[in-house]
Amino acid sequence: MTTLLEQFEGIVGPENIDQLRQLAKLLEGKRVLHVNSTKAGGGVAEILHRIVPLMRELGIDAQWETITGDDDFFQCTKLMHNTLQGKRMDITTALLRHYEIINRENFTMLRSSLEDADIVFIHDPQPAAMISSLPSRRGKWIWRCHIDVGHPYRPVWTFLRKYVQAYDASVWSLSEFAQRLPHPMYLMTPSIDPLSDKNCELPREELEKTYERWGLDPFRPIITQISRFDRFKDPLGVIYAYRLVKEFVPIQLVLAGGGATDDPEGQEVYSEVMESAGDDPDIHILMLPPDDNLTINALQRVSDIVLQKSLREGFGLTVSEAMWKAKPVIGGDTGGIRLQVINYHTGFLVNTPEGAALRLRYLLKHRETLKAMGDKAREFVRENFLITRNLREYLTLMVAIAYGANDRIELL
Amino acid sequence: MSEPFVIRDCALIAIATGQSAQTLMGLRDKLEIVPESSIYYHFWGGLLRSRFDDPEYQNDFAMWTRHAIHDKTLAERLALVNPTDYPDLEVLRRELVDLIEERMDESEVLPWIKALQSFHFIRSQIVIFDTKRVAATPEELGEHVPHLSLGSIFYHFIDARRRTHLGRDDFTQWLSGFGDEHYLLTERISHIDPYFITLMELREELIHAFRQNAPETEAL
Asked: What values do phi and psi take at B16, rounded to 5?
């Protein structure tokens, strides 16, 4: 049976895997514990489902635990999530106290694992306050912040800061997302897993079924945007850009997004999008379940060009997902999209629907350029945004933290 | 007989310093206080990031001045700063501060223009790997060069300048152990300016230098 590392070796090459082994050798037998709030759904769980088994294959005693909480707790952490990302809204003292109580209860439940671990990774704000229950700890604690805290609502950040400043290090997705803390603040861009349902290779029959299932014409160009129905993703701008191109090229547009049933604004945007699409048979608005990863994978693969025309974006990993499928991406000139879409190489950065329409027409007219850009995009992701790069950074950070290394870590 | 040349590889991991600037004056102020490793990162770190062609400006300070402050004059002056011309990072830091101050003196508004995107100061840690490959002779080393990873090129050519006596690259440092035997090769390599080229181009120049050396060694 092929091991995970062997499968990845086929994708990123033996040198990269050898680097992982060298780093892991220094961490052999170390107990590493990841803690987050869910095993299913969301980018963090997706990454941990792969990173933890990979660490174990490398000889590290890696474990993954999740915390539990009631409705009030998750209401509080949802508010925290939104306010840390800039929404101005107060959280009641009662809710914050409840957050602390639930953290203490979870600490009690996970106590022995947390005390025994050499390195503890606490993911996001939900379990962040557990650290205060263990003031004299043996292991090193690292807070991994997956969200954009670049412009937080201050009272909420001040509350959380008193916990996260006690960590030995923190990890952020972009320097723009970070707040100043009195410990090393590592930067790791997010990554995609090429073996997951969302990104794995699909058989031709699967793609043929996709045309049939969604009523798409395989002989006419397809452009796609995969995103939640959210104003910041500018779905109406995408429809406008489509119409500007449609006058010249008989394209089809797919706008596919995850369910937004618990999000009133999402419903509102969805209705606006439906209204704007009208009865155009070439606009396909698909409301997909959040875990329908194989469908998203197939839709990206049958597309000629993928759009991510966001007006504001955190990192926007859907860009790398599309690029991994050798599709050029036309993306909004914002946030982490700028790191993935390299103008004229892996796609185009645009600021308006008109800009998107111009680039769409250009690429549909210059098919060889479209193909070359797509190929380049895939290689760019292979070098920069695959989970193995993320794992190397995690291992490096663990070596640095465990061995107290400064600017140089020599594995010789 | 020299010790064998041990081929190593490396990777950088980025660390936020927590310092950022939104104006030229802010950039100047923060440049005075950030760690040396941050200045190093913003000059050399770009080499290990993927890029497709020659960037318009070689260092992050010049790039930010051009694209966020929109001042071509200072961007051009900063872009011309070649870090290999300076004996250490403190002197380089001084030069950057001087250039920014000089430019601020030329315009009343420039120091206050607010950039669309802040400049975030980053530093890095370097991780060094053993490739388990060694070369006992310059000829053997020449055979390895076309297969060196970009991380290896960075380690032996760029990082070496911080490690070796007189700030040399590892290749010329090692070759000097052979006395005058490989004088021409040593000279050719020492004349390669790593700053305005990519690591791939740097590898090509090294391959070229070693190939030119081949007849010379055969003659010996």
From this structure: -70, 140
- State whether A13 and A55 are in the same domain: yes
- Tally of domains within chain A: 2
Closest Cα in chain B, distance from residue A262 (Å): 34
Residue A184 and residue A213 in one domain:
no
**Percent of chain A surpassing pLDDT 90:** 79
Residue A282 lies in a domain: yes
What is this structure's pTM?
0.88
- Whether the CA torsion A206, A211, A217, A222 is positive or negative: it is negative
Q: Residue B34 contacts by C-beta under 8 Å, 6 or more apart in sequence?
A: B17, B19, B121, B123
Inter-chain touch A342–B52, beta carbons under 8 Å: yes
Q: Is B184 on the interface with A (CB under 8 A)?
A: no
Q: CB under 8 Å to A252, separation ≥6 — which residues?
A: A216, A217, A220, A221, A222, A223, A282, A283, A284
What CATH code is carried by the domain that includes residue A164? 3.40.50.2000
User: Average pLDDT over chain A, rounded to whole?
Assistant: 93
pLDDT digits (tens, 9 = 90+) for B161-202: 888 878 899 999 999 998 888 899 999 999 998 887 888 889
Token pair of B61 as six digits: 């300070």
Alpha carbon distance A304, A300 (integer Å): 8
Residue A342 lies in domain: 204-384
Same domain, yes or no: A317 and A170: no
Contact A67, A114 (CB under 8 A): no
Dist CA A150 CA A153 (whole Å): 10
Residue with tokens 């994978």: A297
Neighbours of A400 (CB within 10 A): 22
For the record, the structure tokens of B84 come out as: 């290999």
What pLDDT shows up at residue B219?
44
Q: Residue B175, Cβ neighbours under 10 Å: how many?
A: 24
User: CB-based contacts of A114: which residues, under 8 Å, 6+ apart?
Assistant: A33, A35, A107, A120, A130, A134, A139
Q: Which of B51, B52, B127 is closest, CB to CB, to A396?
A: B127
**Beta-bridge mates of residue A140:** A119
How far apart CA A354 and CA B80 sit, in angstroms, is 37
A 153-182: CB under 8 A from B:
172, 175-176, 178-181
Chain A residue with Cα closest to B117: A176
| Cα separation, B187 vs A188, whole angstroms | 40
A97 and A219 together in one domain:
no
Q: Is the pLDDT of residue A197 over 90?
A: yes
**Residues of B in Cβ contact (< 8 Å) with A396:** 11, 13, 125, 127
What single DSSP character describes residue A176? G
| Residue from A311, A318, A350, A315 nearest A336 by CA | A315
The H or E element containing residue B121 is strand B119-135
d(CA B40, CA B34): 11
Question: Is A187 within 8 Å of B8 when comparing Cβ atoms?
Answer: no
A51 shares a domain with A89:
yes
Q: What is the average pLDDT across A211-219?
A: 97
Question: CA-based angle A377:A378:A383, to the nearest 5?
Answer: 95
**Taking the CA atoms of chain B, what radius of gyration do you get in angstroms?**
20
Going by pLDDT thresholds of 50, 70 and 90, the confidence category of residue A260 is very low
